[in-house]
Amino acid sequence: MNELDILTFIRGYRWAVEATNSATLTPQAAIIGVAVTEQLELVFDTLSSSRKAVNLRSNPRIALVIGGWNEADTRTLQYEGVADFPEGAELEQLQQVYFSAFPDGPTRLSWPGITYVRVKPAWIRYSDFRVEPPVITERSFTFTDL
Questions:
Q1: What does the pLDDT profile of the chain (146 residues) look like in tens digits?
Q2: Up-side HSE of residue 21: CA atoms within 13 Å toward CB?
Q3: Angle at alpha carbon of residue 145, lines to 43 and 84, rounded to 5°
Q4: Measured between alpha carbons, how far is 103 from 113 in angstroms, rounded to an integer?
Q5: What's this model's pTM, rounded to 2 decimal places?
Q6: Phi, psi of 97 (to 5 degrees)
Q7: Which segments of the chain does DSSP mark as H helices, in order?
């Protein structure tokens, strides 16, 4: 599976389940709306007071699962990466990506504490259980933020 295939797969879904760890290493998960950049970075909004935002500020590692929601399409994408909270021009560019996927996004700009999270990929595993044997491919990404 190449980067274009991954990009196409992620763009076919608007929702992901994310998992982070609290400061006491308690696992916490939530369903979130995600958009994806051409560089396979995921973008989502949340409140700065949410558990996920608090967790990511102290430990930026995050795991997500995309797809596999129904028995008719059992393809999934596991995504592990490192999150940050962009600002300035970088944030504006990422908001445009997010607003393209979620046209209602600008209405949340007035919410107190709204923040945007970018996740850069470290590892991706695509699984297609529609075929026998299943097709499973993995891809690691290298960058110095891990």
A1: 788 999 999 999 999 999 999 999 999 999 999 999 999 999 999 999 999 999 999 999 999 999 998 888 899 999 999 999 999 999 999 999 999 999 999 999 999 999 999 999 999 999 999 999 999 999 999 864 44
A2: 9
A3: 30
A4: 19
A5: 0.92
A6: -60, -45
A7: 3-11, 51-58, 88-101
